[in-house]
DNA sequence: ATCTGAATTTGACGCGCGTAAATAATTAAT
DNA sequence: ATTAATTATTTACGCGCGTCAAATTCAGAT
């Protein structure tokens, strides 16, 4: 590394003995220049430590190398995990991932879309808030920017959707619970997104298929504080007495975590062993659910597959010019994770 | 909103009947133009929906309005929470927060610093990895970019540090534990950052001050999977038998969560009531620790204060031109959160 | 040595905006 | 109405790079 800083590409090109347009071409695609000149540029690169000015680059490129990642709630480790995986893959493919969280708020989500628009990203991976989303705003956004939706579906919006097969996963755990004890009742999550309703319906269908009467416990409470909802509503339900079943299937793990706390507080022993008053199961295989007491029986979502397939779909979309021939929906199956809670 | 899109500031200025330089001035500071012209611009803004091209703006400004936020591990809800608070405050102050997570990896952290450098941010709020940080790289970075460190201290680096007063908080909970039962032994976290060592030392000092013999339980394991470390090491320690005390103070809540799982698995009842074999306490007041079974007694870090003061310090720093007269360190006290686990 | 297609160089223009200096218009106070 | 101070406009240049057309050089094969 030499002493003085390089100011611009002009200067770097001069120092490496190559013309600026060729250097520019190199940075757009190192393979587009002759191997010998590529070597010379890379040698100079080591000595002078130069990087093109991103702002100038992005101003002049029709499309940037940015990829927007939008999640509804980053304080949920599920989204933190999935965002991490997506980031990694974008970087590996030579893109610049930019992460946003709507923090459960429609206004914030809309602002993010606005910001994103002016960033002119090559594409966007969007896990929308769901019910709280401004459908019109999201739709307009998707018209301008190549977007793949994931986790939470909004019918007809975006070029593709990647998520998990709630019908399969809920069906599977319902069947498991029925085989191993009392048929479960369903502890619903606040209907923040379509997954809430899909899971409820999947539960009802599975129960009816198996010849049992479904019981859905509706919860009061909204927003993304699922643990709190699970806890307060769990206490309410337990205190009220008369649960239709000793087995509770929760719409997601965070709800189950809150419910476990409520059961503990009420002195109800949870588990599938003898002496247990309650079985509790969740959905998602949240990063912390293996450390609950007792560890949570749940269905794991295929994080890697969802993240990976979302990204690949977006890359294909970008290469195809931003418009897909048809909107494709991909659902990944869940995997039963048997632990001690049910 | 009129039909056709505005291409640039020139066009927008023409349509609103104002000269471009004045419009430019407006966007830099709406109050820097006469109220009457401001009105005219804002009226036009409603009709035409124009936004300056960020890339062009950032290329020409000496300093951008970007603020980098770097955390070591975003899948930890503690950092997700604090990042959220910081983001909000930056936006309110008219800045563009850009969030990065090092995902516990030195290479990633270094790449982030590199990217950040070329983003020419007005300032950076950095919670470094700690021990895993490339000290030299961070130091060089801080020389070029106004940076406030938070959460994890690196002596002498950055223009300021904001964190929690481990000595106070650990001292307080040690004293509480001693007053209410057996003096605790200390379940150490993997020494990923200085907080690990500071907390251990604070524990030892507090115990000696109170006339007790400190016992530190060293853990094997590294990285940021604290729950896993707490769980596996907890099982190991319990199986080995001969714990020096029935009270365990964990270096942080995530470790305690893992330890709670281990105790549960081993059939040890945790809590401060009768019939309990173990008391477990944590540190941080992790968002989930009120939902553990039993709920975790811990020390809450003052998230808001740490986030708020970090941001304010950075803003002052930016206004002062990026260099502080002296490096100031601010530590916030923790608050004892008594729950059922100890 | 000659040819050919590909790679490179040269020169020039454009992107959208910040900013500075000089000039003109507006405001407020005398 | 006159003056001084503030605010706008005009004009012009610069930022760092993408990209295009034309001219040139290159590598490899004949």
TrEMBL record, chains A, B:
GO MF terms held by the record: DNA-binding transcription factor activity; transcription cis-regulatory region binding
Keyword match Transcription: yes
Keyword Transcription regulation applies: yes
Domain named HTH cro/C1-type: residues: 9-51
Pfam families: LacI (PF00356), Peripla_BP_3 (PF13377)
Domain of life of the source: Bacteria
Residue ranges constituting the HTH lacI-type domain according to the UniProt record: 7-61
SUPFAM superfamilies tied to this protein: lambda repressor-like DNA-binding domains, Periplasmic binding protein-like I
Entry-linked PROSITE patterns: HTH_CROC1, HTH_LACI_2
Keywords recorded for this protein, A-Z: DNA-binding, Transcription, Transcription regulation
Name recorded for this polypeptide: DNA-binding LacI/PurR family transcriptional regulator
Originating species: Rhodovulum euryhalinum
Lineage of source species: Bacteria, Pseudomonadati, Pseudomonadota, Alphaproteobacteria, Rhodobacterales
């Amino acid at each position: 590394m030499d002493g003085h800083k390089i100011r611009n590409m002009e200067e770097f090109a001069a120092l490496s003995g190559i013309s600026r347009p060729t250097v520019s071409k190199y940075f757009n695609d190192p393979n587009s220049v002759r191997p010998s000149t590529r070597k010379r540029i890379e040698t100079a690169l080591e000595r002078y430590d130069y990087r093109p000015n991103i702002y100038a680059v992005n101003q002049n490129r029709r499309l940037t190398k940015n990829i927007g990642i939008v999640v509804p709630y980053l304080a949920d480790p599920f989204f933190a995990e999935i965002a991490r995986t997506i980031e990694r893959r974008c970087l590996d493919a030579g893109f610049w991932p930019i992460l946003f969280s709507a923090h459960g708020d429609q206004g914030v989500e809309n602002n993010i879309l606005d910001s994103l628009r002016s960033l002119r990203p090559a594409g966007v991976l969007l896990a929308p808030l769901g019910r709280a989303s401004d459908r019109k705003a999201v739709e307009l956004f998707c018209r301008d920017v190549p977007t793949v939706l994931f986790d939470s579906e909004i019918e007809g919006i975006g070029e593709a959707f990647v998520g998990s097969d709630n019908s399969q996963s809920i069906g599977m755990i319902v069947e498991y619970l029925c085989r191993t004890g009392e048929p479960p009742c369903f502890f619903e999550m606040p209907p923040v997104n379509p997954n809430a309703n899909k899971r409820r319906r999947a539960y009802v269908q599975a129960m009816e298929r198996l010849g049992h009467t479904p019981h859905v416990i509706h919860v009061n409470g909204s927003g993304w504080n699922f643990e709190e909802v699970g806890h307060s509503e769990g206490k309410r339900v337990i205190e009220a007495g008369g649960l239709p079943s000793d087995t509770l299937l929760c719409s997601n793990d965070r709800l189950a975590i809150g419910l476990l706390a409520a059961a503990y507080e009420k002195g109800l022993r949870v588990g599938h062993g003898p002496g247990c008053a309650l079985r509790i199961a969740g959905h998602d295989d949240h990063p912390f659910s293996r450390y609950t007491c007792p560890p949570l029986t749940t269905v794991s979502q295929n994080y890697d597959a969802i993240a990976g397939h979302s990204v690949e779909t977006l890359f294909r979309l970008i290469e195809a010019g931003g418009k897909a021939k048809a909107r494709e929906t991909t659902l990944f199956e869940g995997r039963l994770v048997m632990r001690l809670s049910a």
